[in-house]
């Protein structure tokens, strides 16, 4: 049986793919347009999701959180200005690597110590880190849906139950 964290990660990958497919249908100017929302633009929001995904993937692999943050945020400007298709390829590569990594783990309930420079030290499991990736991504994909609606464009359905129905 597949661990629930792996299924949730698969959902995250599907969800980001659906959003990116929708974003490929909108004008480039809208993708980069400054919008009064939780992030300055759709482009900066999608880059943020990618950056944070890389932070947590590095952490899953054993990199200290502070170092993972430093490495992942180092190319923020480049990612925010990258063409959507380039960012899509980066997401696909990262998703394949992370999915393979998760499936190779013998114990996703394995406990590790996080030393978060903003929140302190705590014990967590690999599965909890996966849930962080998924919920963080879902939150910001909701921001993107709001930005699309604010500019007169429809978003796409990314509900978890819809994902489950499509898997059948």
TrEMBL record:
Keyword Coiled coil: yes
Regions annotated as coiled coil: 84-111
Pfam families: DinB
Binding site for a divalent metal cation: 48, 136, 140
The UniProt record lists the keyword Phosphoprotein: no
Keywords from the named record: Coiled coil, Metal-binding
InterPro entries reported for this sequence: DinB, DinB/YfiT-like
GO molecular function terms attached to this record: metal ion binding
Entry's family note: Belongs to the DinB family.
Protein name: Protein DinB
Organism: Paenibacillus albilobatus
